[in-house]
Amino acid sequence: MTDTSTAASPVSPAAAPSGDGSSLYLVDGSGFIFRAFHALPMLTRPDGTPVNAVLGFSNMLLKLLADLKAEAVAVVFDSKRLNFRNDFYPEYKAHRPEPPEELKPQFSLIREATEAFCLPCLEMEGYEADDLIATYARLAREAGRDVTIVSSDKDLMQLVRPGVRMMDPMKNRMIGPDEVVEKFGVPPEKVVDVQALAGDSVDNVPGVPGIGIKTAAQLITEFGDLESLLARAGEIKQPARRQKLIDFAEQARVSRRLVLLDDNAPLPKPLDELRVREPDHQKLVDFLKAQGFRTIVARVQAEMAKDGSIADAAAPSAAPAAGAPAAAPAAPQASGEAAPRVRSHSLHAVEKRYELVQDAEALRRWVERARETGVLAVDTETDSLTPATATLVGISLATEPGLACYVPLAHRAEGAAADGLLDFSAAEAPKQIPADEALAILKEVLEDPAVLKVGHNFKFDHQLFSARGVRVAPLDDSMLISYVLEGGSHGHGMDELAELHLAYTPIPFKEVCGSGKSQITFDRVPLDKALAYAAEDADITLRLWTLLKPRLVDERMVTIYETLDRPLVPVVADMERCGVRVDQAALARLSQDLSVRLAEIEKDVHALAGQSFNIGSPKQLGEVLFDVLKLGAGKKSKTGAYSTDSSVLEELAEQGHTIAQRVLDWRQLAKLKSTYTDALQEKIDPATGRVHTAFALAATNTGRLSSTDPNLQNIPVRTEEGRKIRRAFVAAPGHKLLSVDYSQIELRLVAEMANIAALKQAFHEGLDIHAATASQVFGIPLDKMTSDIRRKAKAINFGIIYGISGFGLGRQLGIPPGEANAFIKAYLERFHELKAWMEATKAFARQHGYVTTLFGRRCYMPGIQDKNPARRGFAERQAINAPIQGTAADIMKRAMARVPKALEEAGSGARMLLQVHDELLFEVPEGQAEEAAALVRRVMEGAASLGVPLVADAGIGDNWDEAH
Q: Which of 43, 370, 542, 617 is deepest in the core (most CB within 10 A)?
């Protein structure tokens, strides 16, 4: 059994704090307030007070104290906006907007949080937090102490020097002289001079017009310092730059005074009082409970329940040998001893008892332990991330937090050759249970309905077990629980969630297997390292489940998890295992055909350009279009190259420039060739003749599944080339492909969610919805409808869902933006319910930071409060689209969860192969195709009860294109 219970540091061991009490940690509290506020979605406590910044700040303090184990820590805040700099430059920070209304009440709460953690809380009227940090850093260095400034603020980088460093806990990185040079182009002692020249528009530091950071760094490097530069400005070769340095010399000097930190500020507390005090546990818990922070409270209370204290944890003893009982913690030193006591704030620490299971009897004991607890966390280790071909190297189990084991099944022998490379020929494989015997022992408990199995991204593990005859059930997935609770507000990988919820950094994979060319597969990892890594995975999975599962009830998200996301794990796992058959010869022919066509287009483009060049090079293309052919002024990027993205080329094509259209044609075919006709051939499993895509269950903000490796959801449907690619997806001999997709589901949901009476009636009557819309908006009877008017109504119908503008609609329809705007205005006036729903939805998003689907899934909108109009506008369009797209995804999930059982009960041999947006693709025995089509349509149309009918269309064919 290996004990690895010490909390991981956020930095490398060489750079990690010593923890001996001699270091001073100065936390930039004001900086973290704003970072926390913008990093987390809007949250409110029961009385309606916003607390998202308080939560982020509290989590930061919790993790910081757990990782540092320092005795001298202080949190420093700004006092008021005005300070001594405004006395000589009133415009300093004058243009900064007022803090968001939701943030203002959190300032005092964050100070309360600091006090609740029993940390010194420092501020001084007339000075900024940065000045206090500079002063304490100077005094500490003069006293021979090391200083770590906990911040990523560039303005503090001027303080970095021997004995003074910065630490960015959000990114888990240290900032020393090298990082300062990377940021400013100069060492720390010259940062102030660079800032004086470049200025800062955010803080209204004027600088010298036209000089940025890069130029400023070059000038300071050449002339040594600001005063030398200004004194010798006449030597500058560039006339404009020379004149600006002469004209704005005094402004540069004022800017230097503004950015130079005052390290002689008055002290709110003496240096020797900046010490971590013994926490008042109950005060801390009471404060956290008042804010509604259940996860943090649970961690604090768990530690209090463990030993009555969240402090004074002794350092762990050395790890015992494998199989030996974990050593007890060392006794703390007596109070009279000279050596200082190291205080630990590792609130999440739980003793780890990990066992290496190498015989059947030991494994049976773990099976019995699982039956006693009724819960078993399960994780697998493999030599590949491709389930169809991966070898099951080992299985890890956990039955309670801190109690886990690893069962090696296919590890190779250990050894090392003289050149440092592993050599497995000289030794026998380590002792381990034969895989078949281990699976036979585990099968009963993994299939036992009385024992809940818990995994993280268990779809992968489910495929491994299914391929070996084990159908794991019932199961919970901590990744999906997190996804249901917090959606797209952050990632849901185990490591990220461990950091977020447990303030714990798991063992990195590269630490066990290496990286790059020297990386080894897991079957070559020595068993002691494999135990520590693999058992920890199962342990963390169980801990996350313990913390997150109760929140489903508290936050009323049980239905989404139980009826939409959890049931999909075995369904999607089976889909991936099955795969879809692909005609490799057809793809090869398509690739050859595309190569010929690409060569022809390339020849045309070269002729139009009057020269040969690399069409795939944006730089060369830009030079040809704008320097050689003079097709306009062009827009240059920061690198100096012309922009040649699709919007630029489309605009040129609309102006009648044939070369731009031909380049667009070339790009489209080149992408199809590289992404599909070439790449798909490499993805065909030679054993099955099928492509096995991977569906991500927790990757989108709306609940949609996404397809990767390869992505089969983006194959074009409306182009001839896309249809040819779909024709290469074929049915097995004696089978047909069945495609069933929802008809206009998003438009139906618009009518439902906005309660648009006219559109709902049209859907109930089975009318052509685009013609019906055109009739309503333009006042034209259905019997006099033209295809052109219907086309305009169709563009508005779909465009409205995505927040289309008059410019975008005009471009799509080939009409002036003013005319397109008139169409949109008429549409929203006729369907006034839609406009009201859109405004209400945006208002809800602004208030809560998310929108919801009809089923209650939350889709987070982090940019909804952004000060930048473009980013805010994008978030507002997302806020309108997400409930529609998300509800469609929820309905599809409900259908997918029900279809397999319905097919099984009907005795059908149909197998579900793919889910692509609103479509499901099946492979069906030829004689059962019509019956299966009727059954799947019935299930899909009954997946939700709405005020509009759901309609599913079915098609049958020998290939995907025919079926669709």
A: 542
DSSP secondary structure code for residue 923 in this structure: E
State the pLDDT confidence band at 798, using cuts at 50, 70 and 90: confident
Structure tokens at 503: 């303030």
What is the rounded CA–CA span in Å between residue 30 and residue 33?
5
Taking the C-alpha atoms of residue 932 and residue 902, their distance in angstroms, rounded to an integer, is: 10
What is the spatial distance between Cα 758 and Cα 408, in angstroms, rounded to a whole number? Answer: 64
Residue 4's Cα: distance from chain center in Å? 28
Residue 857, CA atoms < 13 Å, CB-side half-sphere: 34
- Residue 493 carries which DSSP code? -
Assign 161 to helix, strand or coil: strand
**Range 353-555 classified under CATH 3.30.420.10:** yes
Question: CA-CA distance, 860 to 89, in Å (whole number)?
Answer: 41
Q: Say yes or no: domain 692-746+852-964 is CATH 3.30.70.370.
A: yes
DSSP string, 231-278: HTGGG-SSHHHHHHHHHTHHHHHHHHHHHS--TTPPPSS-GGG--PPP
Tokens of 135: 């002063």
| Structure-token match 């006449």, residue found | 234
Tokens encoding 536 = 């920890």
| Fold of the domain built from segment(s) 24-273 | Rossmann fold (3.40.50)
Structure tokens at 231: 């004194």
**Residue carrying structure tokens 């005609």:** 583
Pairing outcome for strands 475-477 and 392-400? unpaired
Dist. CA 130–CA 127, nearest whole Å: 8
